[in-house]
Amino acid sequence: MKLRTRLIFSFLLMVLLPIFLAAAVYLTVNHTRTTKGKTAGQFYFSNNVDDLAAYTDDEVRTLEELARTFPDYFLNSDSQKQANDNLAKKNSYLVIRVGTKIVYDGASAGVHPQYNKLPMYGKLSNGDMLIIDLQTETGILKEIDFGKEDGKRGQAFVITPAGSIVRGGGSVALYYVSWFVVIMIITGLVTSFLLYRSIMRKVSLMQAATEKIREGDLESRIEVRGRDELSQLAESMERMRSRLLSDATQKVADEDSNRKFLSNITHDLKTPLTSIIGYSEGILDGIAADPERQKKYVGIIHSKAVDMNELLNELSEFSKLDMHEIPYHFEKIDAIEYFDDFAQETSEELSGDGADFSYKNTLEPETEIMADPAQIKRVLHNLVSNALKYCRDDVKLSVSLRVLDAGDFIQAEFEDNGKGISPEDVPHVFERLFRADKSRNTGIRGSGIGLSIAKKIIEDHGGQIWVTSRINEGSTFYFLLKKVSEESQDTEDM
Ligand code: ADP
Fold first, then answer.
1. Does residue 390 have its Cβ closer than 6 Å to ligand 1?
2. pTM score > 0.85 for this model?
């Protein structure tokens, strides 16, 4: 759930839960009323005349019972006082009339009834109530008749001044306000806790993950599920972690390759230098005494120096490419035309070397690539020269070039039937200064830079280069070059 949705949900919960709880309280209280009789609480809450009348029902019923059992009950002054005290608890009081004479009035000041307004005997049946005017306010009156014989016939009135009920309502209001406050506190606590828990769980997971990253542990994944903003943040952190991990891995690989490169270059420079030193010492020491031998030694020194020069030239070429010192001149090239020309040239060169060459181009007419023609030619020449260098002695060299469509790319495949590359060397042939051990030992001249330059050029063109090979059967070099898409053509035309 989104954080925004969760906040809306919490807000609704905060609004709806109190309503729900308040309704629950109200219903529970009402339920008590129907089963246990009416109490002050519900009395004020519902606040209609029936409810007001029912306020003293229990007391009136008890007094009726007493009057029935003891006919003189209301004539006894102790009973009168006791009954009045009981009624006072319900903010009511007792008035007793025997015949036409008021014998008891338990009212406090200001709420006495007007005696002449009290109902006549027999007018008000038991259980009924009457609203009457008291001195300063209105009240509710109920009547209990007693003493059926003449002379002792009397009426006991239970009078409840309405004002006292309304005044008593203050405490009831307090009662409901207290409930409301409790409900609000519960709601607040529940929603805050739910929100806090869902947010904090993710925050603490992310905190732990950041701590691990700070300590250098880039391997542990940050796993936070969900689609809210925090989960999205965690996803970004996870992407950052995996990027850092791959950068770190790449850095280690680069360092490794640099170390290898340094060790290779030391070796590749040292070997011809040792020969140069050896042969020049031979001349100096007079070992090569005759001119023929001297000529041979100088020849070797020259050839080693040429090798070193070539190696250093290629290295400097590579580093220029690497440091973007050689700018590319990209242009739109008709791929069919370009490869046709190259094939023509190569066919002549290879047939001059006694090798077979075949060429097949299955591209759609007018397929265009965006490339630097001189640099791509350099890649192709390197492949041709390698095919010539690493051919087998026992079979006639046969080379084929195929150019085909590969979706957004064109794919060139350059196949020879040469010595092949061993499976353990295949992953390394594009590394700087890599030469398969066999090539080093066969005396075939080379620097081990050519293919790394080819890889750099193809990758700078947004393509890829790779090789498949079988030892003693031959190798196939593949590379991809991006076609000029209709999209880029459109933007160019604009
Ligand atoms: P170089 O040819 O100067 O040694 P490259 O970078 O062009 O350097 O090639 C790297 C290595 O890959 C070569 O030393 C050789 O072992 C191997 N190699 C390249 N092309 C071929 C091929 N066509 N057949 C067999 N081995 C090859």
1. yes
2. no
